[in-house]
Amino acid sequence: MSRMFVTSIGCIASFMAACASHDANNEDNAGQVSLAVATAPSDVQCVVIQATGSGRTVTRPISVTPGQAITTTVSGLPMGSVSIGALAYPTACSAVTASSVPNWQSDPITQTISLTKGTTVALNLVLRPSASITASIDWQDDNVGGSSSVGGASSAGGTTSTGGTSSTGGTTGSGVTVQLSQSAQTIQGFGISDTWSTAAFSTTVADALFTTTGSGIGLSILRVGMSDSGTFYNSFESTNISAVKSRVTGAKIIGSVWSPPANCKSNNNVNDGGHLLTSCYDSWSSTIANFAKNNGLYAMSLQNEPDFASCGAADPCNGNYPSTLYNANELVAFVKIAGPKLQTLGVKVIGPETSQWNHAWSNVSAGPDVLGKNSSDPLACGFPPNNSACSTGSGYDYGHYLAKDAAAWAAFDIFGTHEYYSQVATAWPSDVTAAKKEVWMTEMSGIKWWAEQGPSSDINNGVAVAGWIHSALVDGEASAWVWWWYQALGTDDNEGLILKSGTDTKRHYTLGNYSKFVRPGYSRVAVTGNGSSDLLLSAYKGTDGTVVVVAINKGAAALTVPISIAGGATTPTSMTPWVTSAADNLASKTAVPVSGGSFAAALGSMTVTTFVGK
Fold this sequence. Notes:
Elements: E1 3-4, H1 15-23, E2 30-37, E3 46-53, E4 56-63, E5 70-78, E6 80-89, E7 112-115, E8 120-125, E9 127-128, E10 133-141, E11 170-171, E12 176-186, E13 189-193, H2 203-210, E14 221-226, H3 237-247, E15 252-257, H4 281-294, E16 299-301, H5 328-344, E17 348-354, H6 357-361, H7 398-403, H8 406-410, E18 414-418, E19 438-443, H9 459-475, E20 478-483, E21 485-487, E22 496-498, H10 506-515, E23 523-528, E24 535-541, E25 547-553, E26 559-566, E27 574-580, E28 587-588, E29 592-593, E30 598-603, E31 607-613
Parallel strand pairs: 11-26, 12-26, 13-14, 13-20, 14-15, 15-16, 16-17, 17-18, 18-19, 19-20, 21-22
Antiparallel strand pairs: 1-9, 2-5, 2-10, 3-4, 3-6, 6-7, 8-10, 12-23, 23-24, 24-25, 25-31, 26-30, 27-28, 27-29, 27-31
């Protein structure tokens, strides 16, 4: 795939639809580009223009006819000093997905130009691997009702210093409203995995993870691993399970499988992929069911990451360990055998539990990573997908194939996935007509070769991880979100909530900004009117009238955001902020009064703040 470079990206989940609606609220202090390219390269069907400036990033797709001139106007872009560029795709814009978008920050080519009303600028769009093309652009103000100066008055009635370079920040006139009457998914909880951990949780660690008192972050889910012999990987697992259950009323213990025995696999090895032999479908499914029954599990996955095969130490791989491949057709067949055995025992069935959320609903694989390499593609669908066999069930796209087989769809209960590589959720597709299932994100962390690989413990990483959670809950409508390890093992990276050295991290607490306050049984509710690309907002309500708002300020400027609470039987009288920042770890601050159904949310730069009221 040919590609062009842009410095960074602000919205890539559900790419074409989400970006358009996200940017629609950012028209104040906006401009437009008249873009002209004499001849589009023969392999380009879509050009995505992106501009970063004035504290926000705007993305615009342009459909292109290969070999013909490009003449179009791109509106709603930021004014002032702007980093601008583009990506080129050999597919239609409608086919561009979140996983098509690379980690541009790893590619240090930027173009920063000063764009003001009436200025004409030559923009060099670097098309790789083809030659550069030079476009002529004419910048004109298309401001909607407000001043065109950066940081000036906006038509929304507030100061547009949102996310700007000024450290003093400003007030957004965003008209943000928490809509308590507009409910989405029910939250089942947040959790952590302990597969292959070296020791049982100490009392201190168990309290820190599974209680809400003191500095506890209130996790309520423990994910355990089943070995190829049908037993726990960890000899101390029963101790961990008891520790969790003694601290969490209604704790959910869920399991997953990494590999069947070697003699049941096509590669005769528990490591490095290989497919489950059809001759073992019945015996292996019975082993899984017995494991779940004997250990009293709430739910059981039939395979951890059926789209991934461990493959050594070279990028994009990171070790040789138990893994098993299923293509979509194989997983459909196995689910129909294994699922009913677990359901008969009262155990919920999780599937497909892909490593890449995009693989749950497509054959598109993520990439490139920080060294410019694509993710592993063990089913050889291609970048972009070009293997015809993958379009008939020999690839990924597990969700679509499960959904169109009624027996398979009925044989599992929870739509499980991971969030690796693209690091964003994929929205439930509109073309799936089968009854929607509860979505659980059952494993995520920073991993080697990819953005946020670490080792790092700073607030930048903490804010990034909070963004992952936000994407899963809001874009992916996940009911559960589960971290990988408590402490990194083996590779010195960000796979642990704390570092391999034992150093605590900010991500530990930004996870807590959700898990400590968004409790099992709460419902996510809609948040409307957010016009800032630096601000991520989500809200939740409890059956007892508790209202929770989680605000992520990714910008370099502090913000004050007026937030209204509407649609509830009652409105909280105050909202208490809990802040994670460079200086604070889930620190409780002075309660903010709610007056006339509204409160002022003060958000420091690069912070995650949870407001709680009842």
